[in-house]
Each structure stands twice: as structure tokens, then as C-alpha cells.
Specification:
The structure holds two protein chains of two kinds. Chain A contains 13 helices and four strands. Chain A is mostly helical. By secondary structure, chain B is an alpha/beta fold. Classes of the chains: A mainly alpha, B alpha/beta. The interface between A and B is medium-sized, with 21 and 33 residues.
Amino acid sequence: MELRKRRGLMTALILVNIGFTAVFLLIRLIGHAFAPYANPPAGGDMIFEILVAGFLSTFGFIVAATVGCTAGSRDLTEGMFRHLVVTGRSRLALYLARIPAGLAIVVPLVAIGYLIVCAVCVFAAPAFIDDSNVNIPPGLSLAGFETWAGDHAEPVICLLPYNGPIPGNVACPGWSKSAVAPSQPAPAELEALAVKIASQNYQGYTQILRRPPVSLMIEAGLWIELEAAVGFILGLGLASLMGSRLLPVISIIVLQLILTPILSAVDLPHLQDLQRSFVGLAMTHLEPAGLPLARGVPGISGGVGRPGAAQSLLPESATVAVWVIVAWLAAWTILGAWRMMTRDA
Amino acid sequence: MPVTLVRGAPGKQAGESRWAVETHGLTKRFGAKTAVNGVELLVPRGLAFGYLGPNGAGKTTLIRMLLGLTRADAGTMSLLGYPVPRHRDAALARVGAIVDEPRFHGHLTGRQNLRLLAAAREPAARDRIGPALERVGLAHRADDRVSVYSMGMRQRLGVAGCLLGDPQLLLLDEPMNGLDPAGMAEMRDMILSMVAEGRTVVLSSHLLDEVERTCDAVAIVDRGSIIAQGPISELLAGARLALDVDCSEPRRARALLMGTTLGARIEPVPSALGLQITLPAGTGRGVVAEINRVLVEGGICIYRLQPVQTSLESWFLQVTGRLGDPE
């Protein structure tokens, strides 16, 4: 109740977990509804990945940590802690009671925001698959894909990647796909080339999704809830240890937005174990396989991948990652509880 | 000054101890400074007990140790017969306390703050919120945010918080602080009503007049040590005796009395025909008659010879050495 009645904190929590993503998706929905050719559909797999991996996980962690810092410090700074201590309830129990109480606020809010993202990404997914800016009907067989490619030779030839000889100089809008012969190929040749290109790209086509699969949505939901829970417990322990809110919040922001990306992006040969011991990296290694960080897509938080991913700067097994997270949770809970048990109230 | 133990009614309540509070050799140091120095305190059940001392005497520190808010460096203590900190959960379940200025979450209402406190106590505590607010006279403001409460209202909310546990013992640290005269009177009545219900109230204060009006017994603490404790009436009975004398020829009267072996300190009263006589502690009533006899036989006309009732304040100042001691 004490946390729920803090309007500023709750506003920030709702804005980050629900408000920003809801407004972003609403703008996309409206834009697409009024100008469908100028504005792509609001949902889809790509938007899902960007929102979950790029926004909800990072800022959800920070806001949850801020809630934890508030839960860990406000009773102390506002003089309520001594009232609670003189009830006779053990200080350890007072500390541990904050964990379910805080999670009861953080977890549902994260879930609501995430469900909005899932709903929009599923129900407002594009009607076509966008493969290298070519809109292709979904669910085609190889034969169907080749037939479709033959009927849409120009965009297929101009936009889809192709590893092979181009029979002539194909004129594309604004540029040309050069070939050995300077002449324009015959339509039949273009159609055959498009079929070849389609055949070569079919496997990639089957891996492109219009909407996020259910399994990915479940995994990603659990993952961002884990991020939020870790953030809350970390903030609670840190603030209880320090006895204030501001410094722990700043520390966690620095950890999440500065240290973790740097440690993800650089290779420190003699300090790899230290890098692995950071909770942010461990959380990244637990990211569901369908999200961009796990696939090693650069540009988002450094792009550390799991073994076999495109960018594997620092391989780490899921087991080690889990142990790192458990160790962080245990360590900060023990430190926070210890300080609460020993501090003068 | 020897320590006088308060004789309270023996009790067989929680912890099977007659004492609501019992400490032996309780000590707390902050660096080189000893805030509480070997305190031996015995507070019987069922009365209002004042823990008196000047600012910085260690009153709040003692209460904080009793409540487990800070650790003692040496000594033992028990509340309601339960040794603390070993059984502090059992002891504090029936203890209510206000320490320092009562502070609450300002963004919550009084009732919501009490709900938080009740949640940390037994389930029945939740049912006591309404009656507690009624009792302290805050029911009509219970749903206002605490940030708009006056100091007196916060004090009353603190007392309401104490009542949630249906306490046998209340430890109130400077409960009169910040209260206006009407608020002090209300607080006094509240304390007396709780004592009338059989609860023990220990209040620390430096407002001696209020303590004298409220408490049955006191302990005097100075520089971390208890220098006297007992029922107020007994303590004051052992105080030095003061007499106001209005007479003719005050100078000659003073000379006559100075020639006796009474051991009195005799001061002329400026701008008045009289003397102020202070007799050592333990002086009997017969000495008053002896003074009268000496003066009358010396031909002094006596217009008034009046023993002055010693107040707790003047006694406190005597025993803490602020007035000096002729003994």
C-alpha cells in the first residue's frame, strides 16, 4: 500500500511499462489506419523484438529497481521503520515481506504492458512478409514462392540477395543490377532469374515471421518479468544496505545503461570471468533465442550473443548465467537483510 | 544519593515478573561518550513512571535499547518479564512505544499508516484501528494525509499506533513535545486513563511539572546514570526543607539563627521583611518549632512561618546538583 500510494513512482512505473509502449503502438496503429501505404502496420515480429528487447527489458529493469530502492529506503528515511521494529516483528521478516509486496506491484504492471505489446504485434501484424523490402505473401511453399517470384520478377531481382550470375543489365528503380552483358534480358530470362533467386532465398523466407510466435511471446514474457524481479530485488537490497534511495538508483542506472553495454561490447581477455559475473550480461544470455540480442544483432545493448550466435564476444552457458543471477539475488538480499537487522532504527 | 526502589504490586502476568521494565548494568557508549552508564531501573506494573533527565542525559537512548532499536554494550534488560533482546518479539507484542518525534508516511492517511503498523502485528490489531483513532480523538481526521497533520495530531497518531497491540506497557519518549497546553492536558488525561486500565506507562521527559502531575513514580537520570528513583511522594519527602519567615528585624533574626547548630542556610528576602531558610534533607518538623522558639525568645515578632512545598522541579535541580548541595 505504501508503494502504491506513491503517485510519482507509480506514474513512472506505469509510463515505462505501459504508457510509452502503448502510445508508440497507438501512433503506429493510427498512422497505418489513415495512410496504410506510407506507414507500415503497427505490429509484427520486428516491432515486438524492438519493444521487448530494446525497451521493456532495459527500462523495466530500471523502474523495477527504483521501486525496490523505494521499498528499501523510505520506511527508514520517513521514520516508519522504528514503528515497525517496535511491533516486535523480526527485522528479517520485515525485510523479506517487502519482496512479495513489491513484486505484487511490479510483476502485474510489467505483464499488462507486455500483453498490450503482444496483442498489437499479433493482431496488427503486416499481411505480407517483408524480406529485404519485398512484400511477399506468407506461408508459400517452395513452388508457390517460385511462382510468385516469377510473377514479380523485378522486385525479386532488384531487392532480394542473389549469389549467381545476372544475365544482362537489369534496370531497377534508381539503379541497375549489373551483368556481364549490357543488354536488357528478355522477360522469360528475367522470370527464370527471379525463380532462381526465390529458390535461393526460400529458406530465409521461411524464417521470417509476420507475427511473434506464441512460444517466443511466452519465453520473452517470462524473461522480462525475470528482468523486473531481478531489478526489484537488487534495488531493495542495495537501498537497504545504503539506507537511501538516490545513490542506489543512480548506481543501478549506471550498471544497466553504461557498464553492462560496455562490458558486453569489449573483449577483456584477462577479465572475462569478471565480465561474466555481471548480472546484466547473465540476463542477456538468458534472453529467448528469437530476440535480437540472442541472435547477436548489433546495435542493441552491445549485441552479445549466446554460443553460436552471430556475435559471441563472451560465451557463457545458460547454467552459469542462472547461477550468476541467483548469486546476485542472494548476495544483495543477504546484504540488505543484514543491514536492516543490524542498523539503529 | 542512595537509590530507592519503587515498591509496586507484585504481578503474575506475562513473563511472571512484577516489573514492567527491569534493567541491570545497562550501558551504551557512542565512541568515548557513555550515553547510558550502568543503569539499574525497576519499573513496577500498573503505574505511570517518569524517566526524567536534562537533554542529553540518555533518556531516549535507554528507551531505544529497551525496544531493540539500538544495541546495548553491556547489561541486561527485560520488558514485562521477557528478557530482551532474546525474547523481544514476545515482549514487544504487548508493548507500544513512541520514540523521538513520531514520524509517519506523509503521503498516507492516518488510518493507512495504522494499517501498515497493524499488518506487522497480530490479526486482531486491524480491528483496533478504529477504536484507537476514536480514543486519541483523531477519528474525524483519520482519512486526511499525515503530511497535513499538526505536531499534536502526529503525537496522538503515535499513541493510536501504540494501542494497536493492546499494550500492557507503553514507552513514550517526550510525549508532550510540541503540544500546546490543551494538547498536553489531553495527553495527560490519556496517560492517566491508560494507567487506570491497568497498563504501565513509562514516559521520558524533561517537563518536570507535567511529570509530577502525571506520574506516580520517577527515576532521575543525569549524565547517563540513575541518581534516584522511587515514588514521587517519597522522593520529595527526602528533599531539603524550605521555610519562608516574615518577621520584624530580619537581620537580627538571621544572626540569631546563624548562632544555632541547625545547619540552615539563611537568606534575607530582598524588598521584604523576611528570611528564606533552607534546611538539610531529612530535617524533621521539630526543627521548625525550634526556629520559632529561638526567634520568639530573641524578641523577634513572627508574622508568618511557612514551610514551602518542594516541587519535583526544585528537587530535581537539587539532586542533579544544579542548585548546589549544602550537605
